[in-house]
Amino acid sequence: MLTFLRLVRIIFVCLRHGLDDLVLTGLNHPLASGLLRVIRLGTRPSRPRGERLRLALESLGPIFVKFGQVLSTRRDLIAPDLADELARLQDRVPPFPSAEAAACIEAALGAPPAQLFAQFETDPVASASIAQVHFAVLHDGRRVAVKVLRPGMRAVIDKDLQLLRVLAGLIERLLPDGRRLRPRDVVAEFDKYLHDELDLVREAANCSQLRRNFSPDTPRGQLLMVPEVIWEFTTSTVFTMERMYGIPVSQIARLREAGVDIPTLARTGVEIFFSQVFSDGFFHADMHPGNIYVSDRPETLGRYIALDFGIVGSLSEFDKNYLAQNFLAFFQRDYRRVAQLHIESGWVPPDTREEELEGAVRAVCEPYFDRPLAEISLGQVLLRLFQTSRRFNVEIQPQLVLLQKTLLNVEGMGRELDPALDLWKTAKPYLEQWMHERVGLPGLRRKLRKEAGQWAQLLPELPRLMHAQLDRPDLTPAVLAELAQLRRAREQGNRLLAAVAGLGALAITIALWALSQ
């Protein structure tokens, strides 16, 4: 009954915000057009469809808000106007009672906050659909932030996910583009994201990995600050980390007042992104302004601070090589190389004509190069490339879609800080250096060092393996004799088949002659 009532509420909210118009206009059927006219009663929605969809998701609650946020990253599947509007969804919900948060901490860590911490702020500093954050002080004086999972979230999520699966099935069956949009796959991807976020140990591990990649005692530590995980106070429902101090990156006036060099900050953000992607193959994939701060402490002034590590992306060596070569080919307007990379990757059917794909890529990229480089969006170029690839039946890899969404975030953040930011000029030297290190002598030395351990085990065995191979009897004459025998048997079989076919033809001819008499 509760599930049925929830479904009724969803239908009511969809009708109130005119989402029936969004569905029926895509059916392209006379019956759908007539039904749409009846429902509209001669009126038309006053707001754009993207805005109506965003308002409906906000009305349905935090799980649907988060679904809209994930859907906004799939610009390869939905229209740009819908993706842009869904990207505006804000995951802000009222906090749950502090007593419940204390009970969750006690259940997870075995003691109430009053015993675990020297000081614990009962009022949360931030609250979202999945968890909320409280500041605290450990007994050794370290200041920390304690992230507490909302109680009962798994049951709520599972119920709403079941409804989303039903709606996805209807969309797949009713809409002409339903199969191409793969709504069930999108819901399955959302299911994975949500359940990953429900495990705060996973998020803590992501945080720890990113901190190790930007270790404070290395030069890269001067670019990005990542909080230290307090593992003894971390479980699947409670995540305790070092407290960070800074200013949200979107508050530019405060950053200027603090003495931060804004143009340098914009360029550093781009460097951090490409460093994560091409050096580590592991990147923070939720880099919107709410998760990125800038330190205002004198000793670390102007350094970026990363928060919220629920969504990260990983790239293989193949992915990194594919992306770097594509970007460099774009810089050089080598569209034939872009087409070749798509075919070599195996994501394009092998019978794709290279010159046809080259022409499609040229049509995507050439309009961008007529503008000043500072006005060109790498994220938009990559998005258009994905859309063009879909015409050639390419299945875009999920990690690349996540990368494209993050690149759009980084571009937007960088150009908000410095409208004159030339992302191409900032990125090109980094990509060229990365390719040089990969294919040049430094890359060869690195690969040799990496494989040295395996070779150390194999090299002593080589003499024995060579001797065993040379000591084996020569089977070549026997193999040749068997092949000759097989060839004779096949020829004999062919002659027999020809004889049978001749006799059959003769019998048919005689039968036809007899019938004609």
Automatic annotation (TrEMBL):
* Database matches in CDD domains: UbiB
Return one Gene Ontology term, BP aspect: ubiquinone biosynthetic process
Outline the extent of the Protein kinase domain: 119-517
Q: Which UniProt keywords apply?
A: ATP-binding, Cell inner membrane, Cell membrane, Kinase, Membrane, Monooxygenase, Nucleotide-binding, Oxidoreductase, Transferase, Transmembrane, Transmembrane helix, Ubiquinone, Ubiquinone biosynthesis
TM segments? 496-515
Q: Which pathway does this polypeptide act in?
A: Cofactor biosynthesis; ubiquinone biosynthesis [regulation]
- Tell me the Pfam families matching this sequence: ABC1 (PF03109)
A single GO molecular function term of this UniProt record: protein kinase activity
Spell out the family assignment given in the record's similarity comment: Belongs to the protein kinase superfamily. ADCK protein kinase family.
PANTHER family according to UniProt: CHAPERONE-ACTIVITY OF BC1 COMPLEX CABC1 -RELATED, PROTEIN ACTIVITY OF BC1 COMPLEX KINASE 7, CHLOROPLASTIC
Name of the protein described by the UniProt record: Ubiquinone biosynthesis monooxygenase UbiB
**Species assigned in the record:** Orrella dioscoreae
Give the organism's phylogenetic lineage: Bacteria, Pseudomonadati, Pseudomonadota, Betaproteobacteria, Burkholderiales
